[in-house]
TrEMBL record:
Keywords: Cobalamin biosynthesis, Glycosyltransferase, Transferase. The active site is at 382 (proton acceptor). This is Nicotinate-nucleotide--dimethylbenzimidazole phosphoribosyltransferase. The keyword Glycosyltransferase applies. InterPro entries: Nict_dMeBzImd_PRibTrfase, Nict_dMeBzImd_PRibTrfase_bact, Nict_dMeBzImd_PRibTrfase_N, Nict_dMeBzImd_PRibTrfase_sf. The gene is cobT. Pfam families: DBI_PRT. One of its GO terms (biological process) is cobalamin biosynthetic process. It comes from Paenibacillus whitsoniae. It is an enzyme of class 2 (transferase).
Amino acid sequence: MEDEVMTATNQLQAVIDRIQPLQDEVVRQADDHLNQLTKPPGSLGKLEDIARQLAGITGEVMPVFEKKAVIVMAGDHGVCEEGISAFPAEVTPQMVLNFLAGGAAVNVLARHAGADVVCIDMGVNADLEHPALLSRKVRKGTRNMAKEAALTPEETLQAVLAGVEVVDDLVAQGYRLFATGEMGIGNTTSSAAILCALTGLDAGVAVGRGTGIDDAKWLHKMNVVNRVLDLHGLRGASGEKSGMGSEVSDETGGKLGGGARDEKSGEMSGGMSDETGEKLGDEVNVEKSGEMSGRALEVLEKAGGLEIAGLVGVILGAAQHRCPVVIDGFISSAAALVASRLAPLSASYMLASHLSQEQGHAKLLEAIGLSAMLHMDMRLGEGSGAVLAFPMIEAAGKIMKEMATFESAGVSRE
Ligand SMILES: Cc1cc2ncn([C@H]3O[C@H](COP(=O)(O)O)[C@@H](O)[C@H]3O)c2cc1C
Ligand SMILES: O=C(O)c1cccnc1
């Protein structure tokens, strides 16, 4: 078992080590091109930030994304037995079948965006079979994190590496633009615990109403998250700078397997933040990823979900392949936070699609250094907000490719 964990750890470290900074030179070329286009400089606002970020990610000033996919990972949560959701756990497999039949919100919005839905069983507590379902089932649901660790180290690594492989396969099929999506009743509780554990935030700030729980259940859900943090010693020891001004101690961050780590990892290069929009023109990249943070993996083991762990792998895999990855709502962002702590450079490959109504989502994005494109008051998950943002991302690419320059259109300036 030890050997298996070591091998999987090394595999994950290799993925992290392959993640490169954005290509500064191409970002500069994109910036130059944007300034030749028939518009006052900067007048396309965040579309220009996206265009620069896409250039730095892909190495192309005019990227085109012919094949795009939303990767919807599903898993069940043992913590449901604490009564923290407005819906029963059976909804997870039922919704997976709905995704496969094409009837869920994410299917509709993906069709609208011309994207494919790739549905993956990471750990649903049912025997599901369908020709279009990819099974990467690690186990039938997590353990109840309020009583014991949700996952073992082996299970956690297996799920993360499965996510990496899913992206490897899709890239081999020609996909170049990804979105994260998930299904798992109870997973806003898991995500809130991850947010608290990695930033030091209080449960009162991080815990939201998920599928729509009433006040009494909401208070209970906060208590459950507090119990999880106490049981697993996850309180206030992020080992990382949160980027939100919350003071956190720094003793537990470390290379997996022991050694001390000295890595400034709180400053993210997430391309969509207001500051980074400016930064993209000159200083896009932060430091190269260092050794992976054992702390982030530990949090995933203690409080994670199999679909969340899988999405961590999807995000790292996309970054490894220099593909943009569009992050959906609260749960996807919890996975993105873990990914950014494992590999700080991965944040440069993320685009935050929308600001979920789920309490805590703004703090979660802030901790990664991302700012959301859309404010649609959505709180669904599944990847629904992320696919809704696909057309905007493609629009940024089209601006680069199709817009006339001052010279070509004979438009005067100065
Ligand atoms: C019918 C239905 C469809 C969904 N699609 C996504 N979620 C969302 O709700 C769940 C998280 O909320 P909580 O932590 O409160 O259980 C996740 O499955 C998430 O994807 C859904 C929830 C329901 C009920
Ligand atoms: O923001 C989300 O992803 C979300 C919020 C509530 C319930 N399910 C998902």
